[in-house]
Amino acid sequence: MDTTSITLNHLFEQLGLDASPTGIEHFITTHNIPNETPISQASFWNEAQKAFITEALTQDAQWSELVDQLDVLLRQ
């Protein structure tokens, strides 16, 4: 069993995004999701990112908590 702790930086890497603290902050401040839109359906994701997020949430994968955290950050 893999017990490696994953972080928001790791999630950004998985999504192919800039995972630096500045890159994460920039992404969060320049993207938002309307309350009625599920995170996986946000208009700024590409198909691979949508698939990863959907899989993370539906399979309650190790990534689901971080996807939930990102969801909250993108709605502020």
Annotation keywords:
single chain; mainly alpha; 0% strand; globular
Fold and architecture overview:
The protein is 51% helix and 0% strand. It has 76 residues and is an all-alpha fold. It is globular.
Class by alpha and beta content:
mainly alpha
* % residues in beta strands: under 5%
Question: How would a textbook summarize the main sheet?
Answer: none
CA radius of gyration? 12 Å
Low-confidence region ranges: none
Query: What is the number of strand segments?
Result: 0
Order of helices and strands: HHHH
Helix content: 40-55%
- The helix count comes to 4
- Overall 3D form: globular
What is the terminal separation in angstroms? 35 Å
Task: Report the average pLDDT across residues.
Answer: 93
Short description:
With about 80 residues, the chain is mostly helical. The protein is about 50% helix and about 0% strand.
Outline the secondary-structure elements.
Layout: H1 8-14, H2 21-30, H3 47-58, H4 64-73
